From TrEMBL:
CDD domains: AmyAc_GTHase, E_set_MTHase_like_N. Residues 454-477 are annotated as: Disordered. It comes from uncultured Nocardioidaceae bacterium. This is Malto-oligosyltrehalose trehalohydrolase. Keywords: Carbohydrate metabolism, Cytoplasm, Glycosidase, Hydrolase. The lineage of its organism: Bacteria, Bacillati, Actinomycetota, Actinomycetes, Propionibacteriales.
């Protein structure tokens, strides 16, 4: 016998429906319904609400036929783990690698991705970040329109494949972070509103109704989210969760969901005897996100362990490309790059022309270590939300790519790479969908084209998200790393990551001393005894420096009689 439970507070009758019979459930406390059923270990089932169409379990762990199908029983406790001695990874000194399971390999599965983990070990990565795995209609998509947070997209291999992936990663010394989405649910296959007030119209997000975190009925919804967090960390042995767009978690309660979440994760880490982390994506530029929770009656921060720092990305992107449209405009200011490398928030109460208001709050970099801020040159958003999904490597020479890598990987922040960046992949990463609802598919295609046409793009140049070719183009070409100039860039990334690991000055999170000469196109950053010198210009630059070169993009560069000659588009690290 197996007990099944479901929260449906406003229903008068709930049945659990199996392949050959339906059974009435008993009403319990606080809107919960329960039933003991006699069924096979992997039986499919659904819930009928007041005689309606059977719907999948809001906490179901497997959806073999997708969001519109029934749930299937899955026992995560049956997996035999080999990571009993695993104690997790530290964020200080970490290097994160973001990947999308569907395009990381030709096969597009978790098992195939696991076969490529040796590449990440050789690169020097310490944490693999998986983009969202929650089921969505169709076979391929980015994953941010998932509708069943407790399950794993079946085309990727389902929940058992995820357990195999995590176990394999731990066996190689890699931590695993899962990207989770709690700010909204996808529009297609979302049946949660039929069960209860999972969503609320009191708040709005860019993607529709917000999750109900503070309206009537929200206690159970908050518990649903927190149970999901616990599931991934406990039952699937995740080391971290990346929380999507937490600025769209609309919660007006005195105790914010993130504070509650961080407290439960810290308590779980203590019980499990291993390190567990929460990493927030936030647009607020608010250091209180990563400030410790209060003690006793003291009001502190939210206690999240780290957060993305997109301002660093924007400053690096503008310095490398010269682009200054949209939100990049503010980062074209002469001192933007230097400021973003000293403090993760360029906007720390300053005027934002893109937002037409002041934005952000200062970070005390003497008190908050730099490793609490995750910085990048490229991410799924910053590449995929461009009209044609063009990577930096499709627009910049190898020398400039090397300069960008040097600035990121020697910075005080926790660096994150986007899959393929390390070899300068020439495959684009485009916006792709596979909506099974024809009307929704047409709307997405038309909306994408119109959005970029309004900004001057030829409609014919904008890839159709619904075309399978858009998805296929976005897959990595694993033949590239063995070819030039990709092999040279890959070696450079490996050398930089190794230097970061070996030299505490590069990963202790202490503030950097930074100088910038925008007119000369040069950048200096002091990290302890190491000096990072970057020449972004097309002309050689000469510097008076004492010390020895420990790493240079162009070979043969050294300090001669107190002078360092840096070739064009070249980065050099000097040990003073």
């Amino acid at each position: 016998m197996r007990e099944l439970s479901v929260w449906a507070p406003d229903k008068k009758r709930v049945e659990v429906v199996l392949a050959d019979y339906a059974q009435a459930m008993s009403a319990g406390e606080n809107g919960w319904w329960h039933a003991f059923v006699d069924c096979p270990p992997e039986a499919t089932y659904a819930f009928s609400l007041d005689g309606g169409v059977p719907r999948p379990d809001p906490q179901g762990l497997r959806l073999p036929d997708g969001p519109h199908g029934w749930s299937q029983l899955f026992d995560p406790g049956e997996f035999v783990w080999s990571d009993s001695t695993w104690r997790g990874v530290t964020l200080e000194g970490a290097v994160i690698y973001e990947l999308h399971v569907g395009t990381f390999t030709p096969e597009g599965t978790l098992d195939a991705a696991a076969e490529r983990l040796e590449h990440l070990v050789e690169l020097g990565v310490t944490i693999v970040e998986l983009m969202p795995l929650a089921p969505f209609p169709g076979r391929h998509g980015w994953g941010y329109d998932g509708v069943a947070p407790f399950a794993v997209h079946e085309p990727y291999g389902g929940p058992a494949a995820l357990q195999r992936f995590v176990d394999a990663a731990h066996g190689l010394g890699l931590g695993v972070c899962l990207d989770v989405v709690y700010n909204h649910l996808g529009p297609d296959g979302n049946h949660l509103a039929e069960f209860g007030p999972y969503l609320t119209d009191q708040h709005e997000t860019p993607w529709g109704m917000a999750l109900n975190l503070d309206a009537p009925g929200s206690d159970a919804v908050r518990r649903w989210v927190l149970d999901n967090v616990t599931q991934w960390l406990r039952d699937f042995h995740m080391d971290a969760l990346r929380l999507d767009a937490v600025h769209e978690l609309h919660d007006e309660r005195a105790t914010h969901l993130l504070e509650e979440m961080s407290r439960e994760v810290d308590e779980l880490a203590e019980r499990e005897g291993r390190r567990l982390w929460l990493i927030a994506e936030s647009d607020r530029n608010d250091p209180r996100t990563v400030t410790a929770r209060g003690r006793g009656d003291d009001i502190g921060g939210l206690g999240v362990h780290a957060q993305w720092a997109d301002d660093v990305h924007h400053a690096l992107h503008v310095a490398l490309t010269g682009e200054a449209q949209g939100y990049y405009a503010d980062f074209a200011a002469p001192g933007a790059l230097a400021k973003a490398m000293r403090t993760p928030f360029f906007h720390d109460g300053s005027w934002s022309t893109f937002r037409q208001r002041r934005h952000g709050r200062p970070v005390d970099v003497e008190k908050v270590p730099g490793w609490r801020f995750v910085a990048s040159l490229q991410t799924h958003d910053q590449v995929g939300n461009r009209a044609v999904g063009d990577r930096l490597s499709m627009n910049l020479a190898p020398g400039l790519l090397a300069c960008g890598a040097a600035m990121l990987l020697t910075s005080p922040w926790t660096p994150m790479l986007f899959m393929g960046e390390e070899w300068g992949a020439t495959t684009p990463w485009q916006y792709f969908t596979d909506h099974t609802d024809p009307a929704m598919g047409e709307a997405v295609s038309a909306g994408r084209t119109s959005e970029f046409a309004a900004h001057g793009w030829d409609r014919a140049q904008v890839p159709d998200p619904q075309q399978p070719s858009t998805y296929e183009r976005s897959k990595l070409d694993w033949r590239e790393p063995a070819r030039e100039p990709h092999a040279r860039l890959l070696e450079w990334y490996r050398d930089l990551i190794r230097l970061r690991r070996e030299r505490p000055d590069l990963h202790d999170g202490r503030p950097a001393r930074v100088e910038l000469d925008p007119e000369g196109g040069t950048f200096w950053m002091q990290r302890g005894d190491l000096l990072v010198v970057v020449n972004l210009s097309s002309q050689p630059r000469s510097f008076a420096i004492d010390g020895a070169v420990v790493l240079s993009w162009e070979r043969g560069v050294d300090v001669v009689e107190g002078k360092l000659e840096v070739p064009p588009e070249c980065a050099v690290v000097v040990d003073e």
